[in-house]
Structures are given as C-alpha cells and as structure tokens.
Amino acid sequence: MEEILSKAKYWLSDVFDETTRKNTQHLIENDKKELEDSFYKDLAFGTGGMRGIMGIGTNRINKYTLGKNTQGLSNYLKEQFPNEAIKVVIAYDCRNNSKELAQIVANVFSANGIKVFIFSDLRPTPELSFAVKYLDCQCGIVLTASHNPPEYNGYKVYWEDGGQLVPPQDKEIVDIINALEYSEIKFKAKEDLIEYVDHKVDQAFIEASLNNVDFGVSKKAKEDFKIVFTSLHGTSITLIPQVLEKAGFKNVFIVEDQAEPNGNFPTVKSPNPEEPDALKMALKLADEEQADMVIGTDPDSDRLGIAVRNNDGKMVLLNGNQTMILMTDFLLKEYKAKNGFKGDEFIASTVVSTPMMSKLAEYYQVECKLGLTGFKWIAKMINDYPQQTFIGGGEESFGYMVGDFVRDKDAVTSTLLACTIGAQAKEKDSSFYNELLKLYTQHCLYQEKLVSLVKKGISGAEEIKTMMTNLRENPPKEFNNTKVILFEDYQTGKAQDFNENSTKELDFPKSNVLIFYLEDGTKIAARPSGTEPKIKFYVSVNGELDSIENYKNTKEQLENKIDSVLSHFDF
Q1: What are phi and psi for residue 149, nearest 5 degrees?
Q2: What superkingdom heads the lineage (predicted)?
Q3: Integer Cα distance of 150 and 292 in angstroms
Q4: How far apart are CA 263 and CA 252, in angstroms?
Q5: What letter does residue 268 receive in the DSSP assignment?
Q6: pTM of the model
Q7: d(CA 249, CA 242)
Q8: Alpha-carbon span 567 to 477, nearest angstrom
Q9: 496 Cβ partners below 8 Å, 6+ apart?
Q10: pLDDT exceeding 90 applies to what percent of the chain?
Q11: CA-CA distance, 327 to 393, in Å (whole number)?
Q12: Considering its fold, how many domains does the chain have in total?
C-alpha cells in the first residue's frame, strides 16, 4: 500500500491540473479501496488495445494516461520514420468523454509536429482502419472500449498497414511510454497541423464496402428481404443504414429507441451483441414486421450479432462461429465461381474459434491460417503474406472481415454480407438458417459454447492467475472419461502429444492460452481476457448430422456433452 500511496501522491504535484489533484486527494483521504484499484498498476495493452475505467490514476483512462501513451507513440513514430512527414488519423465512438479524449490525443500529436486527421464526429472502428491506408498515414488511433460497460473507455493503435499493433512493436512502444515522465507530455496543440476529415473518407469507405460484397444478387431479392437493425446506441448508425440503402435493401427497420448514440447505453444492460438481452427490442420489432433477419452492432461497430428465422419461423440468435462459417463458405463459393482458385488463397481464424473453419478450407482446397485471439493477428497474416489472397476470416467473438481493404473486424461490411446471403437464400426458397444447416450436414455439426467469468480488481486478477496456473501445472488427463491426446500451452510455447509421447514447439507468439484436444474431437480452451477482468473457457464438440430434420436432437446431444465437459471446472 505504501507504493500505491507514493504513486498517488505524485498526482498531487503541479504536473497535474487542479481538478486531478483535488480528486486524488479525495481518494487518499476517503476511499482507500478505490485508491488502490486506481493506482496499483499501469494500464497495459491487451488483445484489443488499452481499455480501462475512466477516472484518475495510472490504472484509469484519463488525459494523462492517454497523453503519456500518445507522447510515447509520437517519440516512436519519429524514430521509425525519421525522414518522413508523419501523419496520423483519429476516430472515436459514442462513449462518454470520447470526443474530448480524442481531441487531447490530437493535441499531443500536433504538439509533437505530427500531422493529424481527425473525424469531427463519431465513426465506426473499421472506417478508422480503412482511413489509415486511404489517407496514407503511418498510424491511426480510435478512442473506444468496444462493448465494455459505460464506465470504460479505451485507446486502440493501428499501424500503416491498417492493422493493430503486434509484437515486437507493441512492447517497443510500451517501453518508451514507461520510460516517460508525465511532465514530458506536450499538451499544447499546433492547430495548423489538425485537419478534420469526414465526407471524403465516408464515401470512399462506403464504396469499398459495396465493392467487396458485390455478388450479383437480384434487385428484387434485396427489396423483398426484411431487416431489423439496431446500433445499440453506437456508431454504426452513421454508416450501416447508408450502406444497406446504397446496396439496394429497402426494407430496413431501425430500432429508433436505440438509434441515438449514447455512452450510457440506457436501453441495455450491456451494449454487446453477444448478449441475448441486447437484442430484445430488435427481436420484438422483427416479430412485429415479420422480418427475415436482425442485425445488432456493438458501440464501435466492429462486432455484429445476428438473429434469423429458423425452419419453424421463429427468430433465433446465432453465435459468432455460426455466422463466420456461413459467411466464409459463401465467400469461398462466390470467389471460386467468379475467379477460380489459383492456389494462393487463404481464410483465417483464431485458435479458440470453431475447428469447422479448417474443414471448410480443406473442402475448398485453400489454406486456413490460425492466429491468437484478436484481429490484429489476421491483419498480420495479410501483411506477412502479400503473395497470397485473403478471402475472409473471423473469430468466435462475433467479428468478421471481408477481404483486406479493412484490417480489423468490420460490422459494416459484414452486415451487408449477411443480408446479401439471406436475400439470395430467400430468393431460392431457402434461408440464412437453412443454409447453415446444409453446411452441417455436408461437413459435420460443430457445437460451441463460451463461458466468461468476471473477476474484478486485484483479488479478481489473482483468482484468474491461480485458475490458469492450476490448469497449466495440473492439466486434466481426461474429460468425461475421454482421453486428452494433445495439450497446448501458448505461454511456454509447448505442445504435449500424449499419443506419441512427445513435445513440440508451437509456432505462435507467447500468450496465456491453454488448449486441450480430446480423442473424440472435443476442444477445450482457457484464457484470460486481454481487455476485461474475465477468464474465458471455450468448448467445441462435434458429431455427424445425417439430415436437417435431425438437427434439434443432435444439437441437444452435443449441448449436453458440453455441459458435462464444463462440469469438470470449479466455476
């Protein structure tokens, strides 16, 4: 506690503004628990950038933690591009204080002599990724905390390829940031270096999105397809309705009570389309309008949740693995019909997502590259293999990327793709749902489940650490009387093959991820979240599906199997 108190007292110095000093003093005198949580560590970069609760302290999002990051990043940019005119682009989402924080970030960059393009109002994260390359910038920043609760905000850093930072760059930048003093931050803006960008980039992004999902679906099919859309108070309202309209979808019903951007997210417990409750209002409107599909996006519009009508005519929510599978199959099928495969194509996913992606790749005879959690790794694949053609890819956490014009998950273009698939299927007397079941009968029925345990604060971090340590040091040898045949530890970089009694090196960056493979095809993964106080468990099982009519029974059997697997963990 003495070390924490010492860190806090530094925030009473004249390096910090009067309000910050006053609030710090209040914590010291009145709220030891909050003081501890605010200063016990520095915010770090995780799988999706840096996120944290807004407030004072080194473990909070505020003008000083973001200012220090931006100062360090400015110094790094000058090292990396010594003879170039450096340019950065900045966007922000609907969260409380995002606009003000984005302006502070812009001021610091400009104070360091760096040209800044900034959107004058909120924009989706995928547009920021697109804008980095479109505006020929070396770096991009988006102020967002994605789907985290209202008290959070965050800071994502993108490099010149449009993808997020990956090792070793992230560590190099963090080392520079950590070596800085708060007194070294340059806050005084050079206004002539700040330029606002809006319409030009918007139109370029919309055109690129439309061009990447141009599959010749008939005008009538699009007009007959009914869509309910909710932005969940986020940024997607600025682009998705426009994109759908330009693509020819006329029957789009917007959930008006959730259309206005609002960082408090007043109509939902969580603005996360992964959560069924978030789409309640949209589902209600879908039944009223007899819509074919519901689309909901998270606050910064990189994730999307989808609900469609099942073969009984009822709206059902799909998970990220399911939408990823159908989208990928559709893209591969269309690409093959239009271009034919040349042998250099690949799709991409993550080690904790459904193994069915590899099944699809095998069927179409393309490569499936796997990376760690986070689309920065898929962006890195595209950058590392320029001689190959990226078709599409995603991860189980409701994110998908169509082509490589955006180098992050993109709910704008993925929404258009989902609606296009649904419209084409409906025109052929099928449906989005039925096309998914066809894939299951063709390849195998994969059933997945994610369990996330929230563990807040210092004690929560210790609990998560203990759970991972126990699994790592005492790995189960079997689940449900089914033998573990392979155990992968991405932190040590080792894979133990129990059938061959051998150990192999994993060709992945070090990461705190554990994966167990069972002899019946079951896969179990565990990892702490890189952006939230959570530990996550992923289970994938599979079984043959001989007909669409038997889907419900087979699915139920697989769900029971998942529950039995999860019963081995002490939640």
Answers
A1: -60, 165
A2: Bacteria
A3: 31
A4: 24
A5: -
A6: 0.95
A7: 10
A8: 15
A9: 486, 487, 488, 489, 502, 503
A10: 91
A11: 9
A12: 3
Task: Examine residue 500 and state whether it is found in any structural domain, yes or no.
Answer: yes
Q: Are residues 321 and 454 in the same domain?
A: no
Quick one: pLDDT band at residue 569, thresholds 50, 70, 90? confident
Provide the annotated active-site residues: 146
Which residues span the domain enclosing 321?
212-443
Question: Which pairing describes strands 252-254 and 514-518: parallel, antiparallel, or unpaired?
Answer: unpaired
Phi, psi of 396 (to 5 degrees): -65, -25
Helix%, strand%, coil% for the chain, nearest 5: 40, 25, 35
- The domain boundary, picked from 443, 478, 500, lies at 443
Sequence letter at residue 429: D
Per-residue pLDDT tens for 226-261? 999 999 999 999 999 999 999 999 999 999 999 999
308, 293 Cβ separation under 8 angstroms: yes
**Does 48 score more than 70 pLDDT?**
no
Across-strand partners of 303?
A: 399
pLDDT tens digits, one per residue of 53-69: 999 999 999 999 999 99
Q: Could you tell me which of 365, 339, 360 has the C-alpha nearest to residue 438? A: 360
Question: Is 112 found in the same domain as 179?
Answer: yes
Q: What is the mean pLDDT of residues 502-507?
A: 96
* Tokens linked to 553: 């029974």
- Provide the token pair at 266: 């007043």
CA–CA gap between residue 536 and residue 514 (Å, rounded): 11
Q: Which helix (H) or strand (E) holds 505?
A: strand 502-505
Where does residue 426 fall: left (phi above 0), alpha (psi -120 to 50 degrees), or beta otherwise? alpha
